[in-house]
Amino acid sequence: MIVMRLKRAAGHAVPFAHSSPDRRMPLFPWYRPGARLALALPLTLTLALCAAPARAAPAELNAAQRAWVAGHAEVSYAPESDYGPFVYVDAAGQVRGLSVDFLALIGAKTGLRFVAAAARPLSENLALARRGGVDMLTSLRPTPERAAFLGFTAAYVAVPAVLIRRADQPDGVALRDMAGRAVALGKGYAVEAYARERYPRVQWLALDNDAAALAALRAGRVEGVVADLASLRFLSDLHGWRDLRVAGQIGFDYPLSFAYRKDLTMLGAVLQQGLRAVTPAERGALLERWLPAQEGTWRNRPTAPMYGIGALLALSAALALWRARRRPGAPS
């Protein structure tokens, strides 16, 4: 069960300019007319799994885990205010997203009762967790820096990070070509350390969230943005943006996990058992709700279906689950 106790979100609204209604967003410019898209198969598999059972089967907890759940009436988590579709605050002030729905399912399977703290940007949530002000966080990629004070469950979804440019900018530009140019990304996001180390000659601009970074790109203040593919699609749909495109992947993926305070090892074990109890049908239903296939276009083909984004997200999620289960000691 998830209980929402929300104060006013700390993030500030960012004004967005309107784009022309006849501009369609070419998210996958490397797909050309007539290309055969092998990624359609995992998309089909995901859609076939989208009917979840009405009742969540309980997780298999041992006696110590059941006792821990019984002795902890509430588990506090710090949601991000601005990381849709994984976790965000909607126009009505409610915390929503794929990660929130996964938590609700885990709560139903384990008996954990999750209570949301005030929604904040990621950098503030990490600082809160470091000083023990909250039990857990959602939608985090494990990093060595975070592992100093957090433990992590297995990943429940994975998405690639990409370089995003405006549709009116030249093709064929990658991060290796952007030395001396301004590129924005999310402050404190896992990709920031990777990007700064891998591409030190780029002029990196760390902003509060992906929405602020994309707004800076659309306003011409930066020449590119690094963000994950699902966030780009979510924000583009939310704000009606049709003037952005994916220039390419950058060699970095986001396998997202739940993170818990390192001193709460029993909480981590219960969360993991809850994830293990999620069935393929339940997982497929959540992915279809928050990372659905969509009709769209790629460049110079205004009526062609854009299979790539839903299939790529589905394939990434499947690969994350497969890799987690291959690790020694991981649940089967």
Structure description:
There is one protein chain. Helices cover 35% and strands 20% of the residues. Helix 1 packs across helix 11, helix 2 crosses helix 9 and helix 3 crosses helix 9. The two termini are 25 Å apart.
Could you give a short description of this structure?
The chain has 11 helices and 13 strands. It is of the alpha/beta class.
Report the count of strand segments: 13
CA distance, first residue to last residue: 25 Å
Shape, please?
elongated
Portion in helices: 25-40%
Count of helical segments? 11
Radius of gyration: 20 Å
Summarize model confidence as the mean pLDDT: 79
Percent of residues in beta strands: 15-25%
Spans of 5+ residues with little confidence (pLDDT < 50)?
3-54, 294-314
SSE string, helix = H, strand = E? EHHEEEEHEHEHEEEHEHEHEHHH
Please outline the major beta sheet.
Answer: 10 strands, mixed
Global structural class: alpha/beta
Descriptors:
13 strands, disordered N terminus, alpha/beta, three-stranded antiparallel β-sheet, ten-stranded mixed β-sheet, 332 residues
